[in-house]
Sequence to fold (123 residues):
Amino acid sequence: MRLYVNGTRVVNFTTETYPSSGSLSWVNANTNFALGSFPLIGATPDPFDGYLADVNFVDSGALDPTAFGYADSTTNQWLPKAYTGTYGTNGFHLDFSSGALTSGSNVGLGKDSSGNGNYWNTN
Fold:
């Protein structure tokens, strides 16, 4: 896994522990995420304190940031662009285009716009 913030790869952490290539994690576990079984985004004991927008998860791919965005030549601000590749079996794209809560269907805030139908229920 690699972490990019505004197009720049983050490599300086206080503690670094890299998984071996091909290792399995809860990120792509192909299972429902529920309290008590797998971590939820924003749930304790490891809450996420940040802002997510235009989230793309590509299953079985390692892409650089330019597949998803670009630096504006005037402002140098990182801007999203439409991803044109495939998402793989468990991949998803959350564009957050609707503010409606999602429950049991592929509409609203948790809508997967990748075409895979991997919707997220919202709480």
